[in-house]
Amino acid sequence: MSKQSSIAKRDKTILLILLGVFSIGQLFPLVWLVDFSLCKSGDVYGANILKIPSPPQYINYIVAWRDGKIPQYFINSVIVNFVSVFLVVLFSLMMGYAFVRMNWKWSNRVLTYVLLGLMIPIHATLLPNFVIFRQLNILDSYFALIIPYVAFSLPQAVFLMTGFIGSIPRALEESAIIDGCGIFRILFQIILPLSKPALVTVTVTTFLNTWNEFIMAATYLTSDRFRTLPFSVYNFAGQYASNYAVQFAVMTIVALPSLIVYIALNEQVTKGVTLGAVKG
Amino acid sequence: MQKVLSDKKTILLLVLPGLLIYTFAILFPIILSIYLGMTDWSGIGKPNFIGLENFKKIIFSDTTFWKSLRNAIFLALAYVFVQHPIALIFAIMIDKIGGKPEKVFRTIFFIPCVIPVVVTSRMWVSLYDPQYGLINKILDFLHLGFLKQQWLGDMKTALISVIIICMWQGFGWALLIYYAGLKGIPEELYEAARIDGATGFKLYTKITVPLLKPVIKVNFTIAIIYALKQMETVYLTTNGGPGDASQFLANYLYIRAFNSYQYGYANAISVLFVIACLAVNIFFQKIFKSENYEF
Prior knowledge:
The structure holds two protein chains of two kinds.
Chain A (H helix, E strand, L loop, with lengths): L1 H4 L3 H29 L21 H9 L2 H31 L6 H9 L10 H10 L7 H24 L4 H8 L4 H12 L1 H17 L2 H6 L9 H10 L4 H21 L1 H14 L1
Chain B lengths: L1 H4 L2 H29 L16 H9 L1 H35 L1 H16 L2 H12 L5 H8 L16 H26 L3 H9 L4 H30 L2 H6 L11 H10 L4 H25 L8
GO biological process, one term (chain A): transmembrane transport
InterPro entries (chain A): MetI-like (IPR000515), MetI-like_sf (IPR035906)
Membrane topology (chain A): Multi-pass membrane protein
């Protein structure tokens, strides 16, 4: 608090203006995009940097929604992401507990092995996984995305969970064990509720990563059936190459879910990013 | 108590599902990649074992491979010397301002980082468009029309244009990490320095920056690894072109595999790519080992 009182009102105004101007600059491309998504397609060729759409062409959004197959891709994205996030949360909770609280000889070595995943770039597995998935006949299915999404989210999630579980006092578990509780009841009735802040962070960061993921989806999905939301944008670039307004509308629609999740849960995202960065 | 916590069956049940999926999708593929890298496989038919032939060819005569690495180094330098100083200054400003604006600005600056890369990349393709793009329009508006370019399509400007997209998108990341670091510096240290007569700029050069050193190093490491791993933005904007002017490793191996059907060769690049990432990671962890990070 002393920080606030230590700066003068005049300095504060200068800071506000500087930050304001720069943040407008940083967001301006997005404003431009949304602006022209509401104009007629040809308007973008005019000399104006921004243009007041008169009247706003909501029809662009209707076309984008329909021809971008938004409902179909959205449902695919929801299925892939919910399953992935659920599995990451469950597995990282279980693994975190086993690494931190349970006694076994290989605990540290296995943990190191999992955290090694933080250093491995996903792109290095694109080619071999394509071959493996093709051999197993799971290319072009939800599995082709869920498996790598879970695998690549686990190292980060396990890292966060081991740190968090380690900070929970042991007293509750000890008395539960004396009362005859098994590990699974301890895990789901004591540790799970106590770990809620860490689990929310894991959920949000995993969600944002997998929801926005494109390159694996582009590699492992060959037909339209299982494609996820980013494909709406990708398909449109070819199909509607000259209809910019509709292209911009589809981009706006696809950006919205992540934006809403981020604004609603921005404390958790911030925490996830900064915690993850330590080991990045 | 000990018995419950040492039960081997339970431990296996807790660890195995995650461990299997991780091994299956990360470790096993990389081992397979090492093998495929030693073949001349095209993706169909039988792989033909050729030993280290691919690796030799890549290291000694593949100019695009080296160009990709060089581009990654340019991107890393841009992160470290352009993006980071600005991010740090803005992190300090946000931290200083306090109250509600602090939260609002922190949120705003991170927005580009949460928007799907497909959207930001396509958006920048439009921004750079020579006919209707915002960039050329702004140049016209500022009477700098002579600077107008075919940004992404020109050999001379393609790489720098891609680097600008990357810096724009990642700015919030760098800022947030510095911001978190600033929050970890105890206010008493500033008080003490003020009592000793330090003011304004001196407070930052003598206290903020030195105490932020561990965070700066972490942020540098992340930036360099990010530069090395760059793929999505390039894939969706220039696809490495024109020629190999804006090529990056991950995108290059992808092209070799799926556009030229040189699956074995691409896997060899992939292996070198993993080695480069691991080496950078280990190198930075070694030289920063003595520091302890606090957040």
